[in-house]
Amino acid sequence: MAVIEVQDFKKAFGKKVVHDGVTFYVKKGECLGLVGGSGTGKSVLLRSLIGLEKPDSGKIHINGADATLYTEAQWLHVRKKVAYAFQGGALFDSMTVFENLAYPLEEHTKLTALAIKDKIFKQLDEFGLAGSELLFPNELSGGMQKRVGLARAMMLEPEIILYDEPTAGLDPYNTKKIQEAILTLKAKGVTSILVTHDMPTAFAVCDKFAFLKDKRIIEQGTIEQLKQTPNSMINQFIEGQIL
Ligand SMILES: Nc1ncnc2c1ncn2[C@@H]1O[C@H](COP(=O)(O)OP(=O)(O)O)[C@@H](O)[C@H]1O
Ligand SMILES: [Mg+2]
């Protein structure tokens, strides 16, 4: 069954049409690589999947339920299961790494302090951040800040994760760490969409790709399928021509 299904999605800002009939789905446990040039509406699409943008028309189904008609209260509920790991990471500067990770659990769960501490230390381990719990964001490298941001987005154990260029601007070491974290989450059955220009990461973690161009998904399929398609967009992606 598709966990995320988008059908004939249309979205404009004023006269500027960004999406005009976008259709794709992601099955349970799959990672879809969403690729497209700058300004093609990748972030708008991800934001729509957590209700931060409303489609002008078309359908969004999440776990089989029509999300198009959700109220803000229903979206709040959805956002506990669907994490959006966005570009900046946006940590709270006045909080330590530990406090940053504790925040979503304190806000949204009834876990005891001990259970929260346990979860945080496991998470730090998983993201290669052990030992950094008492540091403040400004004491971390940019790459570490990004990893803490990602670790925090994952604290509520979401079923779906939307990664918006998680490795942009990162050095190879931090890129590898993010790849590992994405693969660990995938092994747990998390369904995800990865927006990226980072080809090695996309190939390391994605099961299939969808290419966004001219307001639509113009091509989608598994890597094997795309490689057998003449003039596939995957070649442009591999050659770094999609910027
Ligand atoms: N809130 C908004 N108001 C007006 N235009 C927007 C808004 N959000 C995004 N856009 C426009 O929509 C287009 C797609 O943006 P975005 O999804 O951020 O692209 P990208 O594929 O680079 O992530 C851009 O032209 C952008 O300027
Ligand atoms: Mg974007």
List keywords for this structure.
single chain, 243 residues, alpha/beta, Rossmann fold, 6-stranded mixed beta sheet, 4-stranded antiparallel beta sheet, 9 helices, binds adenosine-5'-diphosphate, binds magnesium ion
Notes on the protein architecture:
By secondary structure, the protein is an alpha/beta fold. The protein has a single domain, classed as Rossmann fold (3-Layer(aba) Sandwich). Helices cover 37% and strands 27% of the residues. It contains 9 helices and 10 strands. The chain has helices spanning 42-48, 72-81, 97-108, 113-126, 142-153, 172-187, 199-205, 223-227, 233-238; strands spanning 2-13, 16-27, 31-36, 57-62, 65-66, 82-85, 160-164, 191-195, 208-213, 216-222. The strands form 2 sheets. Strands 6-7-8-3-9-10 form a 6-stranded mixed sheet. A 4-stranded antiparallel sheet has the order 2-1-4-5, with no helix packed on it. Strand 7, helix 6 and strand 8 (191-195) form a beta-alpha-beta unit. The chain is globular, with a radius of gyration of 18 Å. The mean pLDDT is 93. The site of magnesium ion has 3 residues, from helix 1. Adenosine-5'-diphosphate (ADP) binds at residues 13, 18, 36, 38-44.
